[in-house]
From TrEMBL:
Residues 1-349 form the FERM domain. GO terms for cellular component: plasma membrane. This is FERM domain-containing protein 8. InterPro entries: FERM/acyl-CoA-bd_prot_sf (IPR014352), FERM_2 (IPR035963), FERM_central (IPR019748), FERM_domain (IPR000299), KRIT1/FRMD8 (IPR051594), PH-like_dom_sf (IPR011993). Pfam families: FERM_M.
Amino acid sequence: MKEGESVQAVYPSGRFTTVSQIHETVMAALGLPSEAVDCFSIWLSSKHLQLQLKSYHLPCKLFKKWKDLLSQYTNTAYDDICQDEPILTFQRNTFFPLKEERKMIDPKKKSENEKAIDLLYNEAVFNVTKTRYPLEETDYHELAGIQAATFAVEHPGEGLTSGNLHPYLQTFYPPHLLEPPTGGQKSLLKLFRQRSVEHSLAEEKLRGHFEKVASKRLSAHNLKILYLQYCWSKPFYGSVMFHGQIERPFKAVHILTYSDKRVTVALNPHCLHILDSKSPPGIMLYLTYDQLSWEFEEAPEDGEDFYSSLWLEFDSVLELEDREEKVTKRVQVFSPTGDTDYKYQFFHQ
């Protein structure tokens, strides 16, 4: 689980234990209702690769093949591959329809779905505070206010109030909102002062949102639902992400420094995003599946330095001086991770 909770179990089937068996054990250990069986999946994850497993997969077999999977599906350095160790996690099923997730907040089923809401909330907080989602600064302040109010209700002994938010800023905010803008040479003293300014600005914003949310006097459960509802409004919610690269427009003046642009492709059952590699990521392209056509191109078998690629074709509007012209654009995304079957499960709906 994203909050660090663990479930331990012993299986007589040993290395032949399937994902389905593990999933059933975790569901029972957490007391999750049968309605939530499709909401969560077993993942095999490390900082270099995250794979949502299928019910028939054998995790022990995949553990042994992990280094091969990293070599095949990532461009991770050899030394990092040798040291990488994956773990099994229980988290949201990327293919679970959002309309079904919304049904889980039914007040009549609060006692049944409370743990599921806890898990979804913790995962959403992780994705927000780790800047996996391309959010605006105002979004971070809104969500930090809800998270702070939730923390105050769940941990009354901590004494969190609008007057002592400063020690908790790093809990509620991603690092980039607490750091001074980069660029130029700055002395340590100047950096320290600028960091203090950023902290003060974030604390002031957080105080306003925290007080507004806290004044509603909601329970922790309802505050978590409020947080999820905010995230549900974003089209990229629940996306699985993989890294890739696209070709930059060629410019002769930059021929010596010319290179592909690193991007992240985010897919969920509703749409596709291409995000830049900044922190937080920015949206370069957003398309629903009915707005695009696609084609997958396998990498040549004898080409070690070539990746598979995903071609996207879509209509766009070119703004000219005196008129607008409808054009068709094509984007080619190169990615070793693109070989995984996420593309088929989403695009073939």
